[in-house]
């Protein structure tokens, strides 16, 4: 059947195409080519983003692997574009882009106004406009009540909806049968009457008459309406009009006493204010001319004020004949007939149509060419008739006259304005905060406060967006002038910037640094702004970036030291029982920082009060959380206060609120973890409630209680630990089956803690724990969640430490062949850690075979990018087995060679990496021939195009060379090294590092196998490697220069290096000087110093500085050997120390330091004193680098010459009249005192005794 169906479908398709050719469009082949239309895009996306291709979202239903589906891979950014937008691998710089919804709640918080500072005010009455502590507490209380009320309303609505839904869902049988239309009888008048009704409305007793829907308005003349009913007013209810038949139904006229007929007024007459006669016929109110507000609501002088009355109307008065009529416009005009009104309307319409055409309208009507605008003749005067202008453009009454607006040069147009000179560029989002700086105002005309604000804004903009030099000066100015600017203006500008949604990490870091510096200067002035600062800084404490959290802690710590404990508590107390969990969480963390800054004892009374709060469970919860955060933050420093903290929170284990019980258990766990392995006696009081809790609770509370017990058990003595472990294990084994991920993590953690305790025997673990443990936890699903994965591996390794490798490896070795790759990785990582910790001594032959077989399978089957787990596991197992691997080496090497030839670069890289892991074991197994063969194979692959793979191949060659030695190496070294020389030009870090290591190893051990010319060629290549970014590569390069110099002599190498001192790049020159020093150390200084000192004659700054730097490193490296060369270099150092260039003197001082330290105690004091005389005048230098070098040189002299000599130089300036001079001398004296306090005693001057004061110390006057 299938071929027939296919044939039929094919014929139908052909027929449809033929039909389509008659009806469809034909495309121009010159434009579109012969390509099928299907290949073209059918729609253009509305945005610039690429539309998702729906066909690529079909992810194949395969087994879980670490490879992303094609739809995700296509979304990944391609290289080569270079723009920041497409760089998807970079961490987003905007903070809000990487925050989750919980952390974004920081933007919902409001920066509160500054608060009253009772300490600065003293006993004065606080200003009513400033918020005091009681005001804040009242606000919080109101907020809480409002929230509670809203919650109750929501609950009530929910209950009502549920009740309604229940009613609707009741079974049909319980609901009374709905009446059918056939069950109703019709009476004679045609009305439908329900049968259920027995009586009639007419049978009811007489009731008070009420107003019917169609009744007229009741008046005193109506008989029946004794008590008017509460009838609803209908839109058709109307005020009676003059021609009305029933006169008694009229509404009293304004100003008329109800109940009496007004004298002289006929009901059917036209009101007196009217002129138009009204015919005596019954008319509708719509026929009526409106009176001047007399027959409506009372007018002037009556109850409700109208025009000219007291209460102003919602719509402005007097807007006659405007485009949009107002409610009172008719009343303002007075009484007019409909004909008059229509006439006005028509006039307005005609005026609108006959208005003169504008130039734009004429341009639109006529063609652009062939017409020109004629100038009116000079004698022409347009007609200006007042009558025509009367109603042309009516003006509302009371319109203010036109005033010319102030010109605002800072207003925004499409293009951003250039900031004034000296200010950095502003981003669009910065205009909100710094827009005032764009106004070109004369600063002298501004008030002092405005000038101050403007100055602060300029400095902050420089800090936020400026260049590093601008930022540095602005930060210094803000710090120095902090008290002058004042806390208010500063924080009112900085804190909103930190709440900016578009803030980036770098900007936040800089602004936080500003706050830190400013806090230090403002000190106690910061108190009114404590809560403002906390609102902005507290979110940093829960940021995912570690450094942001550290910054937040530093700021809060400094803030608490500046403001004091009382202010901090007053600021944060209202937030402790805040309705928002986010606020409570951040407040608890902030309080823990305050406790660590000001000391836990100071905070204990407050914590005790909060944790025992009867008013709200939120306060208790936050108080206990503060204790938890204190334990996490300060670690073992809680030990002195452990008992107090446990007593404060222990009642929470029996709290009525579940959340409080949970946080209490977690806090106890944190305290026990921080105190480990001490402090079990402090937890005596909580053991019983914890024990009862794990038997009665379930879910999250049980998890928290188990965690607490898990951390307390390791603190116990071995005997108790064993007992408690067995007791708790029953519950743990029950919870092994829990589906909750959080519970699984905690159970694994507790098992790990219990198993690691001393008193627990291995046999008990084997029999009672292992079977259930492996059955419930060693499943594929555990490998998919990273946290579960890590916890399971750690727990299994801990169990293996107790029961041995065989029990663990034997149970999981078969899983190395599992089809799930994440699971195989987890097994491999566990085996690697277990074997590394315990060795492979108790692995029998059968397990060994299974292990090697499984590892080979897992290694070959891996597809994920992260290959380190498999490599590490393979290396660990092979190294642990040692010589027992020999039978398997041919198989392993065959696999490696096969994979080295694979088309995938990753596979080749893994194979090469594996050789470097197992090379040492191959040597132990005497498989040198096999290694030589692998060396030849790797040599052939040195033409590899992928740098990652080439780096791994070089690493494998290096491992083989290290193990096999230079003489037995195949290919021979003389062939290998020339192939490495061109590879040195490769700029990839991995290639550079492995290549230079290999070349250095050959230069160190087998330099004689390579001709000198080749080494010189390598020297030139090595100079380029001094530019490498990685320090390890530069270090290996300079060491290689030493090896090469040792092999071929220093002269040629030194010539190359000295020429390199002339380059511009500083890093290159510094590395060259280090290389020169290493050559000198390797080949003795006398081979290098003559050429080096000769090079100093070159009148070029970089060269001379390079020589001095080389001397500095040289004397640092040669140490005591320097005594033979100190007199030779002294004249050169003299010249350098007298040079005008700062860098010369700095480098020379550094050389003097290393020289002095090297020759201390070797009899070169005369040269050192001579050099000290040249160093000393530089002590007044202001450059931090120079003064640092000079101070270190003097420190070196103290070691070499003794403290007494330097003290004699010091004494002359310690009491100098100039403060700046004294400061420098005292600084030197203080460092002298710290370094050689005892040696100074003998050198102090003898002070003569005065009458009462005896300064002589006879016991010190001793001579040997």
Automatic annotation (TrEMBL):
<dbReference type="GO" id="GO:0003729">
    <property type="term" value="F:mRNA binding"/>
</dbReference>
<feature type="repeat" description="HEAT">
    <location>
        <begin position="645"/>
        <end position="683"/>
    </location>
</feature>
<dbReference type="InterPro" id="IPR016024">
    <property type="entry name" value="ARM-type_fold"/>
</dbReference>
<dbReference type="InterPro" id="IPR015016">
    <property type="entry name" value="SF3b_su1"/>
</dbReference>
<dbReference type="InterPro" id="IPR021133">
    <property type="entry name" value="HEAT_type_2"/>
</dbReference>
<dbReference type="InterPro" id="IPR034085">
    <property type="entry name" value="TOG"/>
</dbReference>
<keyword id="KW-0539">Nucleus</keyword>
<feature type="compositionally biased region" description="Basic and acidic residues">
    <location>
        <begin position="87"/>
        <end position="118"/>
    </location>
</feature>
<keyword id="KW-0508">mRNA splicing</keyword>
<dbReference type="Pfam" id="PF22646">
    <property type="entry name" value="PPP2R1A-like_HEAT"/>
</dbReference>
<feature type="domain" description="TOG">
    <location>
        <begin position="841"/>
        <end position="1076"/>
    </location>
</feature>
<comment type="similarity">
    <text>Belongs to the SF3B1 family.</text>
</comment>
<feature type="region of interest" description="Disordered">
    <location>
        <begin position="72"/>
        <end position="294"/>
    </location>
</feature>
<dbReference type="GO" id="GO:0000245">
    <property type="term" value="P:spliceosomal complex assembly"/>
</dbReference>
<comment type="similarity">
    <text>Belongs to the phosphatase 2A regulatory subunit A family.</text>
</comment>
<dbReference type="InterPro" id="IPR011989">
    <property type="entry name" value="ARM-like"/>
</dbReference>
<keyword id="KW-0677">Repeat</keyword>
<keyword id="KW-0747">Spliceosome</keyword>
<keyword id="KW-0507">mRNA processing</keyword>
<feature type="compositionally biased region" description="Basic and acidic residues">
    <location>
        <begin position="180"/>
        <end position="192"/>
    </location>
</feature>
<feature type="compositionally biased region" description="Basic and acidic residues">
    <location>
        <begin position="136"/>
        <end position="171"/>
    </location>
</feature>
<dbReference type="InterPro" id="IPR038737">
    <property type="entry name" value="SF3b_su1-like"/>
</dbReference>
<dbReference type="GO" id="GO:0005681">
    <property type="term" value="C:spliceosomal complex"/>
</dbReference>
<protein>
    <recommendedName>
        <fullName>TOG domain-containing protein</fullName>
    </recommendedName>
</protein>
<dbReference type="Pfam" id="PF08920">
    <property type="entry name" value="SF3b1"/>
</dbReference>
<dbReference type="InterPro" id="IPR054573">
    <property type="entry name" value="PP2A/SF3B1-like_HEAT"/>
</dbReference>
